[in-house]
Amino acid sequence: MLGAILVIVVIVLVVFFLFSVLKNLVKALLYTLLLCLVVFGAMGIMVYTDIVNFRQQAADSKNLFLLEKDGALLAGIVLSTDHDDEKELSVMTVEPPQMEQYSRLYSEGKLSAIRGSEFFKVVVFNEKALSGYYADSDFTIHNYTLDQKAVSRIVTSDEPYVTFKAELTRANEVDADYLSELDDYFLQDRADEGSASNDFRATFFYAVVKDMLFESKVQGTVYLVKKYKEGSVMIEPGSFLFTMVKWMPTTFFSQVFESMKEKAKDVVRAAGAKAIEAGSGKVSGYINNTNV
């Protein structure tokens, strides 16, 4: 009888001890979780602000955007503010000789050398990251639409202008006058459609970048950060806060960005307005005049 009582007492003491330990453990876990939520939330807000500032700076500074596939650069555009008119954004194509130099440095992993002292930021988009933005919604140009696969085929084609027209007419009933306007713009002073490749690829690349970065769409910001986390978008130089996003769970910054979008809307819209007003560059002219 006494043995049974002792066993019961021991069991009660063990249960009490375990309960106390588990209670403290659960409390510690809850405090840790709460602390993580606060830290990640604060980091998310700072990262969002950092990205919004980047988008605004992209409209105020000189920046280089590059498109790559399988380690090879396909196109490049330079966005810079016209110093004679601070509200006007100049968008220019990176010409072949300069692209060759950038390609060599890129293959050597020298993004900082590409940036030099000329650019505020160098942003490199992998082709799949660029076209993947349209996985859930179509790209729209002049009220015509193109899906993700069409965007991918256009930017990677050896003759992107020819491919663009083929994809456009395959997916839409295109007005003949519009096609004629395209030819008038892109084939001026050129012998054939193939020779329009460099300018058109850069033009199309700019249209997608503008849609993603300068329109008032929080999903563009979230998408950019996700691809930066995955490594399919590179930014040189990357700020401390922007780099910290690699350690943040995607769900956290997605929720933070969604909650912050109203506060940041005015800032983002101001950056978008500057981009949409672009018109001085060779590349930007047609895109902006056709309401992409």
Key attributes of the depicted protein:
292 residues, alpha+beta, two-stranded antiparallel ribbon, disordered C terminus
Structural notes for this entry:
α5 runs antiparallel to α6 (160-171) and α8 (197-213) crosses α12 (282-289). The chain is an alpha+beta fold. The chain has a five-stranded mixed β-sheet, sandwiched between helices. Strands 5-6 form a two-stranded antiparallel ribbon. The N and C termini lie far apart (89 Å). It has one domain. The chain has helices spanning 2-60, 96-107, 111-115, 127-132, 148-156, 160-171, 176-186, 197-213, 218-230, 240-244, 250-276, 282-289, and strands spanning 63-69, 72-81, 89-93, 121-126, 139-141, 144-146, 233-236. Helix content is 63%, strand content 13%.
